[in-house]
Fold this protein.
Amino acid sequence: QVRLVESGGGLVQAGGSLRLSCAASGPSFSTYTMAWFRQAPGKERDLVAVMSGRDGSTAYADSVRGRFTASRDNAKNTGYLQMNSLKFEDTAVYYCAAQEAESRRWNYWGQGTQVTVSS
């Protein structure tokens, strides 16, 4: 069983930066695909960034490409989301998720961390 714990959220002014962390427990972390999602009040949960467990490639939602950077440190079992040039519309609860190799669903979720961007 894998447990994911996010941290690093908070209140920041527009134009500022935050770095979220996702600490994972359990084996085989390096083989998992990891992703960051976010959910704003009254809206659906949207995919923000994904990092392949197969080749380390990353992909981003159009709304954050060029501003957000996802990375991972497999030695520390931790994923990161560096968020720069934050906008008011980035305000949301951010979740990390992990997908086992050969799985077609997100098997594990963190509890979420609130990011609030003031305009």
